[in-house]
Structures are given as C-alpha cells and as structure tokens.
Amino acid sequence: MEQFDIFEDSQEQHSVSVFNDRQMIALQDLDKKIPKVVKFLIADKFDDNFINSTNNIWKFYYSGQTEKLDFSIFSENETTLAKFFLIAFIQKNTPSFLSRKIYSFNFLINYLKNRNLHLNYENLKQLLIEIAPQENHQNTYAHIKFLLRLLILEDFPNFDIEDDFELEFIPRPKSFNSNLFYQEYEDTIDYPLISMIQQGFIKLNQVIKDNFQSIDNQELLYSSILGLVYVTGLRPVQLAKLSAEDIKIDTTRLIDQFHRYSVLIPYAKQSQYIHEKIAVKLPEEVAEIIIAYIKRYNLSSKNKLFNLGENSAHFCSEAINTQLFNFAPKAYREAVRAGEMLKQKYSFSDFRHHVGYSLAMAGSSAEEIAYILGHLMCAEKTGGFNLVNYRHSSGVYHEQETEDLHRRI
C-alpha cells in the first residue's frame, strides 16, 4: 500500500496552484463570507473565546491545550479555503485539535500538487479511496471527507450536489467489529436540528390557521419540500415524480375532523417491471403544510406536485437550506447576515441517511427500510434480496450481512 508524506516538496511547490480560474473567483466570494472574528460558542471560562481569522497565525487555548496554526505555508487561495474549512468545522463541532485538521488540509494540497492534479470531486474521492485502508490516515480521511462535503454543499466549481449521495458509498476506514453500515455512519441531522425543524413546522401550521394569506408562495413550496425530505428521505428524482393526488387523507375522525395522512412514494430507481407506489405515513403538521401549498397553487389531483426546473437536485438543495435558515433562531440568522457566522448547509442525502439511520437504530429490517425509502427489491429476478445492490442504493447495510439476511429471508 502506498504511503504518503504530507510535507514532501511543499516549499518548492508553493507557487503551483491546484485551483482553476472559476475556483479562484469562487474563493474570492468565499473570502467575503469568512467572519473576521470566530467565536467559540461553548468555550469554558478558562478557554479562549474567539480568534481573529484575519491573522496569518491562529494561536488560542482551548480544552486544556494551546493550538498554533500557521497559514504562511499556504498560498493566498489555499489560505482562504483552509480558513473556510476550519471555521465551518468549528461551527459544526469545536475548535479542539484544529492542528490535526490543518495537517490533513496540507496533506491534501501536497497530494494534489505532487501528482499535478486539480481540486475536484473525482480527485478527492480517489484520495479517500486510497487512504481508507491505512490505519494512520483515519483522521485524515474524516477531515478530507468533511471538506469534500463542504465544497459540494457550497456548490463550489467542479463539485456538484448530485455527487453527495455517492460519497456515502466509497470505501471507508474499518471500525472495530463493525459490520453494519450505520455503525460507521455519523448522523448529521442531530437533535437540536430536529427540534428546530419540528418547531418550525408547528409555528408555520399556526400561521396557516391564523393568517394564511401572510405566507408567501415560496415559503409554502420550500417548507413542503423540506417536510417530505425530512420525513421520508425522498430523493429529488422522486420528488419530481409526485403528483398532487399522491398526498392522501387515509382516515378522518368526524368529531373533530382530525385526519391521518400518507404519501405515495415512487421508487427511487426504474425497473423493467411496473410497480405501484408505496404508502408511507405523513405527520399531520407536514401534511397540512403540503395541503395548504396545493390549495395556494390551485393544483388539481393530476397536476405535478412540484416543478423543480431543469436541475431537481440544485432546486431541492436551495429549497431545503433556505427553509432551514428561515426556521433557525433569530440570533443565528442575524449573525449570518452580519457576517459573524457561516451559514450551515445540509443536503437531501443527509436527510435520506437520517431516515435510514433512525430506522436501523430502531431495529428495522433491511426490507422495512427499503420499503420506506422506496427501493426496488431484487426478488423479482433472484427470489431473494440482493443486499449488495440494496446497500449501494440506500446505504443501510454492509455487504458482509448479505449471507445472514438471505438466511433470514
């Protein structure tokens, strides 16, 4: 197995650029988003509370350790990307051990320079595949993957939102005694975010009841898309296949007009066989937002539910992150608008894996998870469940479980 030295020929290659012209322009825009003062929101009373991001040396004390990061080894564009990467990590996690992250970033830059490669999705994916089996690069793998997803979510040139789903299925470092995919998966949809989304839906429902006309069309559209992605993990291609009649009222309680709803989900991938759509329960607070959206847009039962334009993935990404920002606390929104924080973004794949992760942790079988996520079974051809194919479409189980699952089925 090839080993890597992150500092090989770093000084000689300082002038070599891994960025193309479009990326350099994008980096100028990223530089404008970087907060000048980065606050450590959960710092202890003995920790430093902030850093000045404009400095070329970051030195601070946090969690019992002094960190010193020197950006002078990087070019101007590399420094911009490195700082953006580190600040995004701080906001998502903590500033602990930032030196390890800058080590990984330097590793990446020198890997690209020494092989005359440019910064793009395919090259970063290939690097992850190469270092995945190497035990000494487990942290490096995680840091570079975080950066890769960050670039995808930022729609950075040569990184596309449609690549995000594939990213979960590349080889990864092997964890001890881990056969299940989700034992190695970190759910990015955490409890604070879940609580924020649920409260957002509840508040929006109240506004629908009290003052429906005050809600603009875009908010109804974006919140409907977010609701379906959050509850069912639908892909953009599935959202594009929905019609208004796929939102069903299953039962109605006459005494108070309480409804139970479901959504008919199209399969994620086409097959040579014709399949009926599958019904999945839809929470009332999400369903009533979608019903209000259908009413506002005067959609008939046969109308397409969402017009997602020429690129459904980009449209869904914009809808999800715009509505999440609208649901976010006022203090956070004001901090982002004032340039004091970076805007955190999530992909539809994050929500899809959250649904699979939640079901897996609750003990659901592969068949049940496949049903909820709208996957085609391979039983048509084989009489059994091809788990290798299933994992690569949903990311729920590891290939090593194939034999055990066939035995159970």
Which descriptors apply to this entry?
409 residues, mainly alpha, hpI Integrase, Chain A, 2 domains, 3-stranded antiparallel β-sheet, 17 helices, 7 strands, globular, disordered C terminus, Integrase-like_cat_sf, Integrase_catalytic, DNA recombination, Tyr recombinase domain-containing protein
Characterization of the model:
It is a single chain. This protein is mostly helical. The chain contains 17 helices and seven strands. The strands form three sheets. It has a three-stranded antiparallel beta sheet. Strands 1-2 form a two-stranded antiparallel sheet. Strand 3 and strand 4 (65-70) form a beta hairpin. Helix 8 runs antiparallel to helix 10 (284-296) and helix 8 packs parallel to helix 13 (348-361).
Layout of helices and strands, plus pairs?
Layout: H1 21-33, E1 37-39, E2 50-52, E3 57-62, E4 65-70, H2 76-92, H3 98-114, H4 121-131, H5 138-153, H6 164-167, H7 191-211, H8 217-232, H9 236-239, E5 247-253, E6 258-265, E7 278-282, H10 284-296, H11 312-327, H12 330-337, H13 348-361, H14 366-373, H15 379-382, H16 387-394, H17 402-408
Antiparallel strand pairs: 1-2, 3-4, 5-6, 6-7
Helix pairs in contact: 1-2, 2-3, 3-5, 4-5, 7-10, 8-10, 8-11, 8-13, 13-14
